[in-house]
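In response to the reviewer comment on reproducibility (Comment 2.3), we provide here a single inverse folding case reported in full, input and output, so that an independent group could reproduce the run without further information from us. The structure tokens appear first.
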């Protein structure tokens, strides 16, 4: 329990100091862009997605996010090198946030560019 708390505090510190953090030994990606779209979608903000947490929630605490390539669709959940399962980015966003209205990536060639679109006016 102490280890999980220390890990969470460490990740939060990295997030606050860098804006984006890649935790050692896992593939948690946070990007708190605080981007708001104006116009018709003025209530929609973009937030990063924690794929590693979703893998653990969906498949069990021993699972982790694993990058199997170099593009946005290269994420998998891994128990071992040969035991991989698909990642559901929409489900990962919905686990992390309320009022998810979509997901997207900024750059297909960047697996770390996924973000959740959240309606903050609901």
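Designed residues, in position order:
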């Amino acid at each position: 329990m102490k280890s999980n708390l220390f890990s969470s505090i460490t990740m939060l510190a990295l997030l606050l100091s860098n804006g984006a953090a890649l935790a050692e030994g896992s593939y948690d990606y946070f990007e708190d862009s605080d981007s708001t779209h104006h116009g018709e979608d003025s209530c929609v903000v973009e937030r990063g997605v924690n794929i590693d947490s979703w893998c653990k929630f969906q498949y069990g605490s021993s699972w982790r996010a694993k990058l199997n390539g170099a593009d946005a669709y290269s994420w998998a959940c891994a128990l071992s090198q040969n035991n991989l399962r698909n990642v559901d980015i929409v489900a990962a966003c919905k686990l992390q946030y309320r009022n998810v209205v979509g997901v997207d990536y900024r750059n297909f060639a960047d697996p770390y560019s996924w973000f959740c679109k959240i309606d903050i006016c609901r």
